[in-house]
From TrEMBL:
This is Isochorismate synthase. Residues 146-401 form the Chorismate-utilising enzyme C-terminal domain. It holds the Pfam family Chorismate_bind. It comes from the Bacteria. It comes from Hymenobacter chitinivorans DSM 11115. PANTHER family: ISOCHORISMATE SYNTHASE ENTC.
């Protein structure tokens, strides 16, 4: 069904505080079994929300186009597209930004939108009832024991030594009980305050379930100034209490691991015959209690005749060598054969497209995330392997990464 362009409508009735507005919008979406996403961009204060008035409209096959003419919405893509984990694009039938809290962007002539307006106009006395989050219909994934993960790392190192792959990123899932009275929306708020530099999100959709995350990794971004950006993020160490990030010393293993990711991005630019990119780094960056090495890449789209660069790079980059490996196909094949579980939306990508305005899109790699289950959460983390990887260290690294998102379960 085609829909008219959203218009700006006033929030009906008295405008509650933004957290309460967010809860009401989510309540409507979840009770109507509609897909919905809420997010907070790195370095910003305000939450945004995108709601689709039809679950079917969110099912998509292709990665989104990142041009100004493309539909506005929220992309939620799995690591590997499949029937179990469909690629989703939530059209922005309703868009709300806490920066202008009294406004809703929707088509008031649409029957779903008028139902929403009627719902928001009613008094909300049942605000303490738990939100009916979407649940995945997939079984809980296999969670590797320490021994199994050691074996996966050893197999990965052997594959590197035998020349099958240059780098591979192994990962695992872990189950954790939900604390009594756990409220995913409050947890989302806690993630926003704990990790001001992360892209914090909660996505809930039929078929995909509910995912919460605080990721440090930009996949592809086109900003308000028409600048395209991506980054090579890899290498991990704990941020020692009181230590200054720029004093961090990196081992050869991490330097090489990150350099491979940066080289892969350069090879994508080359494939597109684009030479006018700016490269900055690598430098040490903070992500929660962790440090990573990061190289930033930027292209001013006003200076190069490349309007589809965002779309093209998205298709070349996903899954990047920071979550799959190199060469890409060989690494993905290795993971399919040996990883032993379904990553689902972990290490896929997510983020707003043409929101808050046409021509502005921000997609992130879905890292430091969890999937919400009725009484537990499934957490995910991975580590880039090189020929020098040690199983015990890699296990510890996954434990550290799990604790970024795990912090909201304590
Ligand atoms: C795969 C993950 O992180 C990637 C991003 C930064 C550093 C990484 C690393 O040091 O291995 C990973 O490539 C994860 O957090 O699950």
């Amino acid at each position: 069904m085609s829909r008219a362009q959203p218009q700006v409508a006033a929030w009906p009735g008295p405008v509650p505080a933004p957290p309460e507005q967010l809860r009401q919008l989510l309540t409507f979406a979840l009770r109507q079994q509609l897909p919905v996403a809420a997010w907070r961009l790195p370095g910003t204060e305000h939450v945004q929300l995108c709601l689709s008035l039809s679950a079917d409209a969110a099912l998509t096959g292709l990665p989104p186009a990142l041009t100004a003419e493309a539909p506005a919405g929220f992309a939620f893509f799995p690591f590997r597209d499949s029937d179990h984990n469909p690629a989703l694009f939530l059209p922005a039938h309703v868009y709300w930004h806490a920066e202008a809290p009294d406004q809703l962007h929707l088509d008031p002539a649409d029957s779903g939108a008028s139902q929403l307006l009627a719902f928001l106009a009613t008094e909300h006395t049942d605000d303490l009832t738990p939100l009916p989050w979407h649940q995945s219909t997939q079984p809980v994934p296999h969670t590797a024991s320490q021994q199994e993960y050691y074996e996966l790392v050893e197999t990965g190192v052997d594959a590197i030594k035998s020349g099958q792959v240059v780098k591979v990123v192994s990962s695992r899932a872990a189950r954790r009980p939900l604390p009594a009275g756990f409220d995913a929306l409050r947890a989302f708020g806690e993630l926003c305050s704990r990790y001001p530099r992360a892209f914090v999100s909660v996505v809930s959709a039929p078929g995909a379930g509910t995912w919460l995350g605080a990721t440090p990794e930009v996949l592809v971004e086109v900003d308000e100034q028409g600048v395209f950006r991506t980054m090579a993020l890899a290498g991990t160490q704990a941020l020692a209490p009181g230590a200054l990030p720029h004093h961090a010393i990196w081992r050869q293993k991490e330097i090489e691991e990150q350099a491979l990711v940066a080289r892969y991005i350069v090879s994508c630019f080359k494939q597109l015959r684009l030479r006018e990119y700016e490269e900055t780094g690598p430098r040490t960056v903070v992500a929660g209690q962790l440090l990573h090495l990061r190289t930033d890449f930027a292209v001013n789209l006003h200076q190069v005749p490349f309007p589809t660069l965002g779309t093209d790079m998205l298709r070349l980059l996903h899954p990047t060598s920071a979550v799959g490996g190199m060469p890409k196909q060989a690494a993905l094949h290795f993971l399919q054969q040996h990883e032993g579980y379904d990553r689902a939306y972990y290490s896929g990508f997510l983020g707003p497209v043409n929101l808050p305005q046409a021509g502005v899109s921000r997609l992130f790699v879905n890292l430091r995330c969890l999937q919400l289950r009725p009484h537990e959460a499934v957490l995910y983390a991975g580590t880039g392997l090189t020929v020098d990887s040690d199983p015990e260290r890699e296990w510890q690294e996954t434990e550290m990464k799990l604790s970024t998102i795990g912090a909201i379960l304590r």
